[in-house]
Amino acid sequence: MTNSVHPHGRHRAPLPPAQVPAAGVPTPRAPHPPPQAAPTAPPTPAGRSTAQSGPKPAKQRDAFFDNAKYLAIVLVAMAHAWEPLTDHSRTAEALYMTVYTFHMPAFIVISGYFSRSFDMRPDRLKRLVTGVAVPYVVFEIAYTFFKRWADDDPGQPISLLDPWYLTWFLVALFVWRLTVPLWKIVRWPVPLALAIATLAVISPDIGDDLDLQRVLQFLPFFVLGLFMKPEYFQLVRRREVRLLSIPVFASALLLAYWAAPRMTSAWFYRRDSAQELGAPWWAGVVMTLALFGCSVVLTACFFAWVPRRKMWFTVLGAGTLYGYLLHGFLAKGSRFWGWFDTYDWLHQPLGEIFVSVVAASVVTALCTPPVQRMFRFAMEPKMEWAFKRDAAQLARERAKST
Q1: Which residue from 210, 218, 206, 221 is spatially nearest to 276, judged by alpha carbons?
Q2: For residues 160 and 137, is the Cβ–Cβ distance under 8 A?
Q3: Inter-residue contact 299 to 99 (CB < 8 Å)
Q4: Which of 95, 179, 268, 306 has the fewest CB atoms within 10 Å of its CB?
Q5: CA 218 distance to own-chain centroid
Q6: Residues of 160-177 as b/e, b for ≥16 C-beta within 10 angstroms?
Q7: Residues 310, 307: Cα–Cα separation, whole Å
Q8: CB atoms within 10 A of CB 311
Q9: Is 11 helix (H, G, I), strand (E, B) or coil?
Q10: Cβ contact 325:374 at 8 Å
Q11: Which helix (H) or strand (E) holds 255?
Q12: Max CA pair span of the chain
């Protein structure tokens, strides 16, 4: 398998505008919060400047988005655990296909939403390098050595141009963010991105370099998130939408149960062209448009049930990149070591439930603050030595020294 890959107090206040999100998803913290209108400052006493009125209060994270990212990463891990079960269980295949329809699109929509303010400013480019490019290089190398050892494959090459397993998302996020300024100046950005995705799925010559098929086929979800507004997320939280999402999800499960023996789940990976999947080119056009529509609907249903208040797992939303990348070692190791072939009881209903609970528990543990501190050197390196200091940084350093 290659990979996939919901605020505070108990009152139901309207969803506030995003301020400092956790990473564009699933990065550990948001590179740049979107610009917001500054609130009117309260009057200060006579003779006292605004700068003397005390430190600014710490900006608050939005619990809704942290909750969404945590719940989505749990679904990613569970879907990876279900993959070996799909050959023997039509129910597992139906669950697998349904979750794959929206879990990565949900991540990518949030990633686009928190990339709205991205530009080519030096500090933002630095953050893109340290928070996306460096983790890609580190984990591409780590996954390669892991496969050499766990799969007894010493010939597995290290290739930064051919992402292996979960690292494709980091390549895609890097490319998508660099294109943000372009999407802001074109007309009809979402239809244009969808047209690009459609052209990609009928172009078998794109090849595997940088996993461009996935970069292009998932692009519409990033562009959709890029033009989302806070009120759109509030809209899906309406009671009628939540109630409507129940029969929608049920219908999706029934449709997936019917489709499981009739189609390949490889369509949901968006890794290959239609021709590479043994289908005519026009089928790629139909599947791209159909899957985009289904993904948007199910993603909206998913957001409808994400809690807005602070939950016990809200703090874990800041560590979804950690859970995403680290759980890949166990997910792949379980295949390399033949656990699903050795223990036949895992293919029984109770075994499938056990696998789901283990996957959710493991990825939850990997998102916790202690794990974040342990692996921050690889996920969020400061790397001050690698960059020139700009004028603002030099001014801050001089102010501290005086």
Answers
A1: 206
A2: yes
A3: no
A4: 179
A5: 11
A6: eebbbbbbbbbbbbbbbb
A7: 8
A8: 17
A9: coil
A10: no
A11: helix 239-259
A12: 78
- DSSP secondary structure letters along 351-402: HHHHHHHHHHHHHHHHTSHHHHHHHHHHHS---GGGS---HHHHHHHHHHH-
The position carrying tokens 């029969």 is: 247
Q: pLDDT value at position 402?
A: 65
pLDDT, tens digit, for every residue of 85-131?
988 889 999 999 999 999 999 999 999 999 998 988 888 999 999 99
- Residue 222 phi/psi, 5-degree rounding, is -65, -45
Number of Cβ atoms within 10 Å of the Cβ of 307 = 17
Q: Locate 74 and state its tokens.
A: 């749990």
* CA distance linking residue 18 with residue 228, whole number of Å: 11
- Asked if 131 and 110 touch (Cβ cutoff 8 Å), the reply is no
Predicted structure pTM score: 0.81
Residue ranges of the chain whose pLDDT lies below 70: 1-59, 390-398, 400-402
State in Å, rounded, how far the first CA of the chain is from the last one. Answer: 57
Tokens, residue 238: 């309406």
CB 28 within 8 A of CB 318: yes
How many residues belong to the chain? 402
* Nearest-angstrom CA–CA distance, 236 and 14: 12
Question: Omega into 26 within 30° of 0, i.e. cis?
Answer: yes
In whole angstroms, what is the distance from residue 164 CA to residue 306 CA? 31
CA–CA separation, 22 and 320 (whole Å): 9
Q: Which of 383, 394, 5 is nearest to 170 (CA)?
A: 5
Given a contact cutoff of 8 angstroms between Cβ atoms, the answer to whether 164 and 140 are in contact is: yes
Predicted pLDDT at 395: 65
Query: Which residues have CB under 8 Å from 262's CB, separation 6+?
Result: none
